Amino acid sequence: MSASPTPPASASGARPLTDAVTEIRATDPGRIGQALAQRPRADLAGAGRLMVIACDHPARGALGAGERPLAMADREDLLQRCVTALSRPGVNGFLGTAEIIEDLTLLGALDGKLVWGSMNRIGLQGASFEMDDRFGAYDAEGIETSHLDGGKMLTRINYADPASATTLEASAKAIDSLSERGLNAMIEPFISRWEGGRIVNDLSEEAVIRSICIAQALGRSSAHTWLKLPCVSDPVSMRRVMASTSLPSLILGGEVSADPEATRASWAAALELPNVRGLVVGRSLLYPGNDDVEAAVDAAVALL
């Protein structure tokens, strides 16, 4: 199947993408492995600046985007948005969990793209065990078998929560397993805390620097390690943040912004720094305020 933009499911009621992949899953599941093996791949070393679409939020029960609490709940709509985003010129990567990577591979949407598998999704949003970021999605073996380019791990560090020790240990082991296979390890570190019954990530300059210094030292080797980092809004602070590492880094998009122009300006400032290699953006581009996915993606690509 070829990847082509289609209107949102809510506009027509049709579910062509979901119906197509469901039929394959029900009648010919072996075709999934074949499609992954035959998918045309890209070369990370020669990719230059990266524009990666992220869509691993639903696996942690994080379905909201902006003011829509269940924005990502409709799979047909989600697939259509991903297909549209991936079809735009300049988009050269995708990050997701196995089921959506397999769906998009069957649809041909990941042909020629770099693909990262999301690894630890057990710390569900809003759960009492949210800080327990165990690895329950991809492992390094699954990433290699699926012919992906690397794995991404959320590495939240809460000084008041013992579960963070388990997360750090698991992240180190995952980095080792990926590195042994020559696969990229993308670490997304945060200093986090409980606040009002929910987890809050500290995006201050000092906290982001501290999270970088902890994360970049994990594992037996950092040769294949990249960082996925929040954008600190003040350009001077962002320079100091990025001065704390020599690792290639990608800037994450975060929540849907009420001021997308200001968000893009902060991305642009970060992209001027030499060790910032591109953007990893999910909901901000898949669910922009005006719902124009193509325009949102094109505006982000233009920054590169």
TrEMBL record:
It comes from Actinomyces oris. It holds the Pfam family Cgl0159. Transmembrane segments: none annotated. Residues 48-301 form the Cgl0159-like domain. It comes from the Bacteria. Gene3D superfamilies: Aldolase class I. InterPro entries: Aldolase_TIM, Cgl0159_dom. This is Deoxyribose-phosphate aldolase.
